[in-house]
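pipeline/complex-builder :: batch 7 item 3
reading input block
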Amino acid sequence: MRHALKIKLAAAAAVAAVAVGPIALGQARLAAPPPQSAVEPRFVLVAPGERPYRAAGEFTREGRPVDAPLVTVRLRGSLAVMQRQVTAGEYAVCVAEGACPATGIASDPARPAVKVSWRDATAYARWLSAKTGRRYRLPTDEEWAFAAGTRWRDDAVAVSDTNDPARRWLARYDAEAAREEIDKEVRPVGAFGVNENGLADIAGNVWEWTDTCFRRVRLDAAGRESVASESFNCGVRVVAGRHRTYMSDFVRDPRSGGCAFGVPPSNLGFRLVRDDEEMPIASRMVAPILRALRADRG
Amino acid sequence: MLTRRSALMGATAAAAAMAFADRADAAAEPVAKAGALRNLPRHKVELVAPPFAHPHEQATKYGPRIVEFTLTIQEKQVVIDEDGTKFQAMTFNGSMPGPLMIVHEGDYVELTLVNPPSNMMPHNIDFHSATGALGGAALTLVNPGEQAVLRWKATRPGVFVYHCAPEGSMIPWHVVSGMHGAVMVLPRDGLKDAAGRPLRYDRIYYIGEHDLYVPRDENGRFKTYESAAESYPDTLEVMRKLIPSHVVFNGRVGALTGKNALTAKVGETVLIIHSQANRDTRPHLIGGHGDYVWETGKFSNPPQVDLETWFVRGGSAGAALYTFRQPGVYAYVNHNLIEAVELGATAHFKVEGEWDDDLMRQIAPPQPIPAGRLQG
C-alpha cells in the first residue's frame, strides 16, 4: 500500500507541473520530493485535464448581478491533493508545537478538524511545510473543482432581471432554501465515501477553505471583463463543499440568521495540496486563473 | 419513596382543593345553559398551527356567540436548532407557540383543555384576556388523563398571551418549555386607525418568540434528557441566571426561514402578531416598517404609525400592520441583533411583485474607488 503510493507519487512528480491555467508558468522546475515523513498524510494525484468551472465571486453585467461565466479551466500537471481532510489530531500537534491557534472545543482526534478559520488552516500549512521541507498550501477554488470532480456543483442562479434586483434575490433565496440540509456532527474519516479521484469526504458535512480571494467583476454588455473592472477582497476567501460560499478569513463557526440567507456550511475544515515543484508564489495564486478565464472567452 | 414524578404531580392535589368548580356538574354538563347564554349560537373552531391562523371574519355583522376551542397538551422532544439540539418541550396542541385563537369582542371562549394520559405532568392555562381565577388557571389544572372546560367572556379587544401556570417554579419552567400562545379579540367592526377608519389585512401571521434555557455539560455542549422531568433541575439552574441559550421564533432556529419563510405580495397588507410570554422583545422588519402598530396589542388604543422597531413587553402580545411596497427578501427580527443572529430570533418574508425604482435604485454597484478619491 505504502509502496504503491510512493511509486505513484514519484511517477507523477516526474511528469508533472502542478499549475492551473493554460499558460505555462515560467521558472517552474522539477524538484524531487523528499522522502515522506511520519507527519505527512497520504496524497493522491489528480490527473491533468480540462473541466467546466463557474468562476467564484460576484459578477455584474452592465451594473446588474449575473452568474459568473461558465468557462473551461485546465489543470496542466498532476495535482497532489490530501486524500482526506486534516484531522483534529493532526491539527492538535501543530497547536501543541505553538504554530497553530487553539480553536476551542476538543473533538475526536481521528476525525476531521473543524472550527478552523482560513488563518488557522494556512498556519497549519506553513507549519507542515517547515516541518517536512515540502511546500503545502490550501488549494485554489479551481484546483478544488478538479479534486472534487463529479462532486463539484454549479451554483448558477440563472435568473438575471433587467431592472428588478429582487427577482434574482428571490431566485437565489429559493435555491439556497432548497439545499438539502445536513447536520453538523463530524463523522469518522471516509464516512462520506471517496470520489472518482480517490479523495475522501469531498462535499460531506465539512466544508473546505480555499486560497481563492473573493472577487467582484464587472462585465460589459458583451459579457467581457477587463482588469480595471475587478476588485479583490482577500479578507474573504472562497469556501468549497456541497455548495460554494464566501467567508471572512477569521471565521471558524459559520452561522445564518438576521439578513443572512441560505444554509451555511455545517463545519469549516480543510485539506492541503502539495507543490511538487518550485514556482513563484505570485504566479500560482490568482493570475493564472484570470488568464484561464480570459483565454477561454477567446 | 418520593420520585421526581410524584413530586411534580403533588402540585395537583393542592390546586384541586383550591378549585371551586362543581366537577360533577362540569363533567355532566359542559355546555352553558344558564340565562341568555343558552340562546347564543355556537361555533366550533379547528385550530391551525402557527405561523398561520384559523379562518375568521375581520369585522362581523353577527352578534356575540360561544366559540369552542380544544387544546390538547403534548409533552414531547423537539429539535430547536441546526445543530440538532434536542429539547424537552411542553406544548399546547404540539406547536411552539400554541395556536392563535381568534374571537370578537363580546364573544364567549369555551375552551376544552385536554391532558392526555401519555403526559407526565399536570398543566393548566392562564388567559391574559380572561377575567378572574388567575386567568382561568385556578379552574383548569388537569392531571394526565383529565380534561377541563372553561368559559370566559372576551371583554377587551386586543391580542393577549395565554400560558400554562401550574404553581411555583413550575410556572416559568412550563412557559419557557413552550407552553404559551395568543388570543386575538377583534373589535366586532374590525381594526381601525386613530381616526376610526377601518383597517384590513390580506394575510395574518402569528409569531411566538421563545427564550429557551438549555443546560450545557462540562465541555460546553448542550445536554439531552430522557424527559422534561429529567431536565428540570439543570434547566432551573440555567433559568435563574436569566441568560437564554436560544431566542427563537416559533419553536426553533429557522422555523420561519428558507422553505418555511413567510410570503406576501407587493400591495398586500399583512398583520403580524408577535407574542412573548416571558421576556421583552423588539420586533423590526428589515427593509420595511410598521404602518400601524399596536405595541401593547390592545385595539381600543389608537395604533402608532410609521414605526421602525416596536417593543413587546414580556408577558404580552403586539400587533403590527404593514403593506409591502417592494419585492424581495425581508428579515423580521428581534432587533437585539445578537439574539436575532446568534441566538436565532429571525424570520424571513419573501415578497413577490414589481420593483419600484422611485422608492429605491442602485445608482452605482460596488466597484473600486476611483483613483483620485483615494488621495488626500
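note: Chain B touches chain A at residues 82-84, 219-221, 253-254, 257-259, 261, 286, 326-329, 331, 333, 337, 340-342, 344, 346, 348, 350-355, 357, 362, 364-368 (CB under 8 Å).
queue -> next item
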